[in-house]
Amino acid sequence: MAFVKAPNMAVYEYDSEGNLTGEYFNPVNSYQGDGESYYNPVAVADLSDRDRASDKFQTNFGLRFRVNDWLTLTEIISFQFDNSQSSIFLPYTASGTRWLNPDNNFGWERNITGTLFTTRTTALFSPVRTDFHSLSGTLLLETNQNSDEWIQTATGNGPSVSITDPAAFTTKNGIRSFSSNINSLGALGQILYKIKDRYIFQVNARADANSKFGETFRWGLFPSASFAWRFSEESFIKDLRILGDSKLRVSYGRTGRSDVGAYDRHGYYSDAGGSGAYMEMATLIPIQVELERLKWETVDMFNIGMDLAMFRDRLFFTLEYYTKETSDMLWPNYNLPRSSGYNSLKQYNEGGLQNKGWELSTRVVAVRKKDLDFSLNFNIYNNQNLFTEFPANLVTERNTELGNGAYPLKAELGTPVGSFFGFRYLGVYPSTEDAVARNADGSRKMDGNGDPIYMNYNGIYQFEGGDAIYQDINNDGIIDLNDVVYLGDSNPDFAGGFGANVTYKRIRFSTQFQFRSGFQIVNEIAMDTETLSDRNNQSTAALLRWRRPGDDYQGMLPRAYLNHPANNLGSDRYVENGDFIRLNSLSISYALGKRVLDKLRLRQLEVGFIGRKLLTFTKYTGQDPEIKNNMQDPFWFGTDNGLVPPPRVYAFNIVIGF
Questions:
Q1: How far, in Å, CA of 28 to CA of 550, rounded?
Q2: Which of 367, 372, 463, 545 is deepest in the core (most CB within 10 A)?
Q3: Is 53 exposed, middle or buried (0-12, 13-18, 19+ CB in 10 A)?
Q4: Per-residue pLDDT tens over the stretch 121-155
C-alpha cells in the first residue's frame, strides 16, 4: 500500500487553513477508491495492535538399563504443554471506514491450548564385535498423543479506541471453537553390518500408523537400505599418502507424509437452514465428503555420493547425486465440479512429482599452524522439480481470460515447477502507423481493399501510437492466448555458498556468503507502479513515458491512458534476473588469556560480534531477490509483491565461565 498510495493522499490531516490537525488522513472515499481498500499504511502500522503471548512447559524422563555387554534398553517419556493467546485490534481511526461499518474498532482473539505426550522405547544390541566384522542394530517403538483446542472470537463496533479487548465489544461478528486429538504409533527396525570396517551395510524398516487416516490405509511401511565402501582402507590404496578417510556410498529409502488435518477424512453435516428446510422441518445436509481411502503421501529417494579427504586432511570433497519420486500426492481443498454437490475435497491423493539434482562441497585447510588456522569452504548445487503426473480433472490453465496485471497460468507435465508464461514485450509503438500487423516475412498485412490491417487486442481494442508492443507469435494480427510463450523459471540453475574461517591465537573470525544464479522473478511492484492506466502512485520510470507521435527512445514506457485494456499485460516487461550474492553471516570473537583470567578469577571470558544478512549484491531492482518457493503447487512462480526483506541482525555477546 505504501507503494501504490497516491502521492496527494497525505499521511496526516490538514484543516482548511493548511494546519495539521494531529490526526491521520483517512478519507472514506478518495479519487483512488474507498478508504478500506486504500487505507493509510502509516496509520495502520502506528495505531493497530497485533500481539502474541505464549507459555511452554516441557519435561523429559529417561531410563537407561544395560542388560549385558551387547544389549542396552532405554525409555524416554516426554510431556509438553503449550498455551498461547493471539489478538488483533484495528481502530476506526486507522482506516477510512463509515460510522455504521460493523468492523469499526475491529477486535479478534484466539486462545490455544495444546498437549503432547510421547514415549520412546529403544533396544540397542551389538552381538558381534570382532576385528573381522561387527553386527549391531536397533529396535524402536514410539507413541504420540497430540491434543489441541482453541476458541476464537471476532467483534466490531467497539466502544472506544482505548478498549481493545474483544470481550468488551457489543457486536459479535463470529465465535468459533475447535478441538482435535491425533494419535500415532511408530516402530523401527535397523541392522548395521560391517566387514573389516570397509564394507558397511545398513537396512531399516519403519512402520507408522496415524489416526488421521482411515482403517484401510492407516499404516504405512517405509523401508530403506544403504551401502558404503571405505576404499581408503583397501591395501592397494592405503599406502597412498595423499588420500585420507574416503568412501563411496549409495542408499535408497522411502518416507511418508501425513500432513493432513485431524478430521479431514471425516464426512461433515450441517443444518440446511430455512431455505433448505423440508415442510418446515430442520434438515441436515452433507457438506464434506468422507475420505475413508485417504492415504500417506510417499517419497522414494535414491542417493549416490563420494567423500574424499586428501593431503593429510587438508582438502575435503563431497559429491552427491539424488532423485526423489513423490507419489500419491496430497492436494488440500481440491476443487470439484459443482454438479457433484460439493465445492471441493478436503484432501485428494493423486499425482507425482520428481525432484533430482546434485551437490558439490569442498573445504580447504590452507594454513594449519600453532597460532594460525585458515580454511575456506565452498558448495554448489543444482535442483530440478517437475510433475510427472497430475490428478484427474486438474484444470491445467488458469487466468485464461487475460487482462492487465495478471499472468496466464499453465501447468505442464515435464516442465520445471516455477516456470511461467506470458507475452513478449517489444517496446512501444512510436505512432499509430507503426501499429500495423505484419506477416511472418515482415511485410504488412492488407485487407481485401489493400488497406493495412492494424494490430488489435483480443478483438476488442486496436493498438495506437504510444501503446505497448507485444510479439504476434502466429502473425494473425491479434494479441491473444495464442501468443503466450514461456518466459522463465524461478528455480535457480545454481545455488550454494562460500566462506572462510580464521583462528589466530585467541581471535576467531568467520564469514559465510550464499548465492543463487540463473532464475527469474516477476517484479509485481514495478507492474503496479508503471502501469500508467489507473490512479495509483507511479514510479519515476513514468517520466520516460510516450507523450507524442514519433517518440522513440531507450526505456520508454507506454502512454498514460486511464483504464487502458492492454498496456499492462503479463509479459517479460516485468521479468528480471534475480541473481544475487549475500553476506549471510559474519562473526568475530576474542578470548582473554590465562594470565588475565587468573587475575579476574575466571575460567573463561570471551566477547564477540555476530552479524546476519548484512549485504546483498544484485542487479534486481525490487526489495529482495531471495523469494520463497512452493514446489507442491504446479502453478507457482516467483513474484515480488513488496514483502519486507530480511532484517539485518547485529548481536554482541559475552561468555563468562567461572
A1: 42
A2: 463
A3: exposed
A4: 999 999 999 989 999 999 999 999 999 999 999 98
The sign of the CA dihedral 454, 455, 456, 458 is positive
Query: If you average pLDDT over residues 475-503, what whole number do you get?
Result: 95
Amino acid identity, residue 276?
A: G
Query: Residue 17: pLDDT band by 50, 70, 90 thresholds?
Result: very high
The pLDDT confidence band at residue 236, using thresholds 50, 70 and 90, is confident
Query: Which residues fall within 8 angstroms of residue 279, CB to CB, at 6 or more apart?
Result: none
Terminal Cα-to-Cα distance of the chain (whole angstroms): 53
Burial status of residue 658 (CB atoms within 10 A of its CB: 0-12, 13-18, 19 or more): exposed
Q: Residue 184 gets which letter from DSSP? A: E
Between CA 282 and CA 291, with CA 285 as vertex, the angle to 5 degrees is 150
Q: How far is the C-alpha of 523 from the C-alpha of 363, rounded, in Å?
A: 37
110 by Cβ neighbours in 10 Å (0-12 / 13-18 / 19+) ranks as middle
* Nearest CA-CA partner of 493 in 475, 515, 510: 515
pTM for the full predicted model: 0.86
8 Å CB contact between 42 and 25: no
Give me the amino acid identity at 131. D
